[in-house]
Amino acid sequence: MSNDKRQCLNCGNAVTGNYCEKCGQSVHTSRIGGRHLVEELQYGLLHVNKGLFFTLRELLVVPGHAIRGYLAGKRVEYTKPFIYLIIWGTLYSLVFHIFHFSPIEEMNKGENTLLEYIPLYKWYTRHFALGQLLIIPFFALATRLVFRQKGYNYIEHLVLFSYINGTKVFVLLLLYPLVYVVESNFIYR
């Protein structure tokens, strides 16, 4: 910390240190550029700092380590689990509505005509991201009951499944172009 007194550019208060004690403004400001704009959009629209792609990378490369670390309290670098799931689910829903193509329907095309007559299945294929949100509490409850000796509470199981399902939706997004172009259930075998 610096002992130099500076004037806050936001409220005019005399500041000692890195932040104004009155309004919280950082004394380290710079000109607004492209990088600043991207950071502001991420934070303003998604309330996500730099952690979204860090979280994604960690969950793809070392998922157990990442989730255990988050549950143990190492949370600064990670995107919050529910926001993480909602971001990827929203992106998936947008892609689905733009292309009007469901990988789940494509996967079962011609294989099981019984599924076509089940209204819940049709709803689930059309609202995959929302379905993922709705099913998480049940998975969390089941794993909480089965793995109760591990000592994790129900909310921690919700965190686990939010990260798992968010990452699953991202992987589906990666595969989406392949499924869309090929349009064949052959890739699922």
Overall description:
- The model has no long low-confidence stretch (mean pLDDT 79).
- This protein starts with a strand and ends in a 7-residue tail after the last helix.
- Helices cover 60% and strands 3% of the residues.
- It has eight helices and two strands, in the order ββαααααααα.
- It is mostly helical and 189 residues long.
- The radius of gyration is 22 Å and the shape is extended.
- A two-stranded antiparallel ribbon has the order 1-2.
Range of helix content: 55-70%
| Relative strand content | under 5%
Class by SSE composition: mainly alpha
Query: If strands are numbered along the chain, what order do they take across the biggest sheet?
Result: 1-2
Q: Mean of the pLDDT scores?
A: 79
Give the distance, in angstroms, between the N- and C-terminal Cα atoms. Answer: 60 Å
Note the total helix count. 8
Largest sheet properties: 2 strands, antiparallel
Ranges where pLDDT stays below 50 over 5 or more residues in a row are none
Cα radius of gyration in angstroms: 22 Å
SSE pattern: EEHHHHHHHH
Q: Per the principal axes of the C-alpha atoms, what is the gross shape? A: extended
- Secondary structure: number of strands: 2
